[in-house]
Design a protein that fits this description.
248 residues; alpha+beta; Arc Repressor Mutant, subunit A; Beta-Lactamase; six-stranded antiparallel sheet; three-stranded antiparallel sheet
Length: 248
């Protein structure tokens, strides 16, 4: 356990638990670390934005970066509680498997799921991941991240999983623009052959797309009625999270 990461986390925890800023020598003595090693770790933590240094250069304290990350985690956990009744209702209305997903880099994480009584080759599990560029929930979240999400995706050279996976920069850019215009994304067997999907974003009080609700479908074109049902339930969840424009 005597690793650089462990030492860095011990320093960060000590700073967070302290009621005042701490110096290098003081931290090194308290934690049983070498002074030079402690100084290097503090510099790294400062560069990463977790620690800040006094203007006089003598003492260090934590920033709000950990609070920001913790707030993101809390928001993601809260959304499961808010969304669950609507996911259950949507699964009853459509008789299809319904997912709740969040974006993690260029992957989606399934944080909740309601199975259909007749699952269509169900492949996902809560806590599981999927490449964002070829599943509906991932594509809709990338699209609503705007240019930042699009540029990160295109720079990553997305992998082809099936014959229908969209990988080229031009085609992906066009698709993400289309998703933003119409407000939903479709996956046509782009990750798993024979498994389609439909997804709509969920917005928080600030208007940010923080999650997506998706439906697993057989390889058919989703009907307008199905799209509207999904949009209504996603709007219900968004409204419950304080989003004011979810009706649109």
């Amino acid at each position: 356990m005597d690793t650089t990461l462990t030492k860095g986390l011990r320093i960060l925890e000590t700073l967070c638990q302290s009621d005042r800023r701490r110096g290098v020598t003081e931290l090194a003595n308290e934690l049983g670390l070498q002074k030079s090693n402690t100084h290097r770790l503090l510099q790294t933590l400062t560069q990463l934005g977790y620690v800040e240094k006094d203007e006089d250069g003598g003492r260090y304290g934590p920033t709000l970066r950990l609070w920001e990350l913790g707030a993101m985690v809390a928001d993601r956990l809260d959304i499961r509680v808010v969304a669950r009744p609507y996911l259950t209702k949507l699964a009853e209305e459509t008789q299809e498997t319904v997912h709740l997903s969040i974006l993690s880099g260029l992957e989606v994480i399934y944080i909740d799921k309601v199975d259909s009584p007749f699952p269509i080759r169900a492949y996902s599990r809560v806590g599981g991941r999927a490449p964002a560029h070829c599943v509906a929930t991932g594509k809709v979240l990338l699209a609503f991240e705007g240019k930042a999400g699009e540029e990160t995706l295109l720079a990553s050279k997305p992998k082809k999983y099936t014959a229908t996976t969209i990988c080229t920069a031009d085609d992906l850019a066009k698709q993400l623009a289309q998703i933003r215009r119409r407000g939903y994304a479709i996956n046509r067997g782009e990750w798993k052959e024979g498994v389609n999907g439909l997804a709509v974003p969920i917005f928080d009080h600030s208007g940010k797309a923080i999650a997506a609700v998706g439906i697993t479908l057989p390889p058919i074109q989703p009907s307008l009625a199905l799209i509207q049902k999904l949009k209504r339930r996603a709007a219900d969840i968004s409204r419950s999270l304080g989003h004011k424009d979810s009706a649109s």
